[in-house]
Structure formats: structure tokens, C-alpha cells
């Protein structure tokens, strides 16, 4: 791959991973455990909605330009 900025042909591919949303909610888990017992702990996972996405980019080691193809 050739860098569009400086023309270097030794570009490397990298992956950027981003996460959005929430993980397990300890507050919901504790309330669920008090109200429903051990099964209520699973309420902490309700509606967590965690999303993970990955994008691939090329990076030039010469000038640092990051670009997609």
C-alpha cells in the first residue's frame, strides 16, 4: 500500500476497536438479588447494550498518516 501523503510503500495495517454502552450494573444486580434471590443477580445484565466495533486502517511509518482504502 502506498501512502497518499508522502508516497512511502511500507505502510502497515492496524485495527482500532471501540466500545460503547455499559457493562454489568452492580446496582441492578444487588437490587435484583434482594428482591428475587440468586436469579435476581441476572437483572444486572438486563439492558446492558454493550457494542463493540472494529475498523481497519493503513498507517504510514514515515509520516504517520492514517488512511482507509
Q: Your description of this structure?
A:
- With 69 residues, this protein is of the alpha+beta class.
- The protein is 16% helix and 29% strand.
- It has a three-stranded antiparallel sheet, with no helix packed on it.
- The longest helix is centred in the middle third of the chain and has 11 residues, at 26-36.
Secondary-structure element series: EHEE
Described by strand count, sense and barrel closure, the largest sheet is: 3 strands, antiparallel
Distance between the termini: 9 Å
Biggest sheet, spatial arrangement of strands: 1-2-3
**SS summary, helix count:** 1
Shape: rod-shaped
Spatial extent as radius of gyration: 22 Å
The chain-level mean pLDDT equals 81
Binned, the helix content reads: 10-25%
Structural class: alpha+beta
List unreliable stretches of 5+ residues. none
Query: Could you give the count of β-strands?
Result: 3
Strand proportion, as a percent range, falls in 25-35%
